[in-house]
């Protein structure tokens, strides 16, 4: 593995404290988007789990982080809205997600999020033997068994958080 940059070192320290086994994967920042990463590095999109920040449109806004497989679609209009408890929900804007997490688009990870941010994981993620997650920057990914997510405080596994994509 190449030498860790500051973002990679912080991620490595966080994951080491968390406890479960993991592997840090270096990533060319130009290939950080899920589809490009999978194609370039030989991973299945079915093993890639994306962390998506959502916002409930209320005063004040309510945020949550959702982890779903790249082969599914986050059900923001039904499952997320019901969990977050407001009438209108949407994906957080790039600016909102960055301000809330301090992380880059296509690099947001579930590791190191603010302690008061709810984390919901689609149950399908837990069925995979291993998953690839963003690493908090466009330069790193995390490879681990999905059980690593359960080591995070307050994680809730949710049936039906994501939907299967419509048939092609």
Count up the domains.
1
Mean pLDDT over the residues: 93
CATH superfamily grouping: YbaK/aminoacyl-tRNA synthetase-associated domain
Helix fraction, binned, reads 25-40%
Structural class: alpha+beta
Multimeric state: single chain
What is the CATH architecture annotation?
Alpha-Beta Complex
Sheet bearing the most strands, described? 5 strands, mixed
Q: Give the amount of beta strand, in percent.
A: 25-35%
- How many H/I helices? 5
Commentary on this structure:
The protein has 168 residues and is α+β, with helices and mostly antiparallel strands. It has one domain: YbaK/aminoacyl-tRNA synthetase-associated domain (YbaK protein). Helices cover 25% and strands 26% of the residues. It is built from five helices and ten strands; from the N terminus they run H-E-H-E-E-E-H-E-H-E-H-E-E-E-E. It has helices at residues 6-18, 34-41, 76-84, 94-101, 123-126; strands at residues 23-26, 49-56, 62-69, 73-74, 89-91, 119-122, 131-134, 140-144, 155-158, 162-163. A five-stranded mixed beta sheet has the order 5-2-3-6-9. The chain is globular, with a radius of gyration of 15 Å. It starts with 5 loop residues before the first helix and ends in a 5-residue tail after the last strand. The model has no long low-confidence stretch (mean pLDDT 93).
């Amino acid at each position: 593995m190449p030498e860790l940059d500051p973002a990679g070192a912080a991620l490595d320290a966080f994951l080491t404290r968390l406890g479960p086994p993991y592997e840090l994967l270096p990533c060319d920042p130009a290939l950080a988007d899920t589809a490009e990463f999978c194609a370039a590095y030989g991973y299945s999109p079915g093993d890639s789990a994306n962390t998506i920040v959502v916002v409930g449109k209320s005063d004040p806004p309510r945020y949550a982080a959702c982890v779903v497989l790249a082969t599914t679609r986050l059900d923001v209009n039904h499952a997320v809205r019901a969990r977050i408890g407001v009438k209108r929900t949407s994906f957080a804007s790039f600016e909102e997600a960055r301000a809330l997490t301090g992380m880059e688009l296509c690099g947001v990870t579930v590791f190191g999020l603010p302690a008061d941010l709810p984390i919901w994981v689609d149950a399908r993620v837990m069925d995979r033997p291993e998953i690839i997650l963003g690493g908090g920057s466009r330069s790193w990914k995390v490879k681990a068994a999905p059980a690593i997510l359960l080591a995070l405080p307050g994680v809730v596994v949710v049936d039906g958080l994501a939907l299967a994509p419509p048939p092609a």
